[in-house]
């Protein structure tokens, strides 16, 4: 698996699917484009439309599927009231969409065999929806523990995918937590509260020997970084990506 140089390409839109209370997945047909990427990389999508806001007609999205899914490219995003998101939400099947990529160095590397700890908040889980299924499909022996925090059960993204990966590969451990269980309609027997030093210690016995990957909104990512640093983890063992604007 190699990291190819980014290039512009066009893909036809396939379908959209609601995957959580406020999030949808958008899939594009990759069958006719020789596009390869590393698990965790992202792309730039361009959607020309009228009345674009100050951010213009392009957005960056993590690729939310394994690189081994060679016939489909998928992104997952919250649907908020922007002209870009409205255009994305209203795409018709077969509509060509412009992309540029792959981009980013927040990736899973198979030659780094020390235990990995993934920390995510909300829609920040998307790069891990590439890394975790890939690790399961490739039967990687790298120990991976994913912590994913959401407000309620209705807002959880990717739980079925990553728990399937956990069943397929004994090196993978999945820990979802919700911060507002009292507002959740569905029953929840898992962890509650924010990802904390205590929660990490509950599942990770030797944190100093781990690589930590942190991704989420800037405030959450900074809080996670402070927690990991307080555990004594060295700076070069912490990888971080901020999600801004969605």
Task: Describe the structure in your own words.
The chain starts with 6 loop residues before the first strand and ends with a strand. Helix 2 (128-137) packs parallel to helix 3. The protein has five helices and twelve strands. It has helices at residues 83-89, 128-137, 159-168, 197-203, 218-230; strands spanning 7-20, 23-29, 42-46, 58-62, 72-78, 96-103, 116-121, 144-150, 172-178, 191-192, 211-216, 238-242. The strands form two sheets. It has a six-stranded antiparallel β-sheet, covered by helices on one side. It has a six-stranded parallel β-sheet with strand order 10-9-8-7-11-12, with helices on both faces. It has 246 residues and is of the alpha/beta class.
User: Could you say which overall geometry the principal axes of the C-alpha atoms support?
Assistant: globular
Count of individual beta strands: 12
Spatial order of the strands forming the largest sheet: 4-3-6-1-2-5
Termini separation (Å)?
28 Å
Low-confidence stretches: none
- Main sheet characteristics: 6 strands, antiparallel
Q: Helicity range of the residues?
A: 10-25%
What is the N-to-C order of secondary-structure elements (H for helix, E for strand)?
EEEEEHEEHEHEEHEHE
Mean pLDDT: 94
Structural class: alpha/beta
Fraction in beta strands: 25-35%
**Tally of separate helices:** 5
Please compute the radius of gyration using only Cα atoms: 18 Å
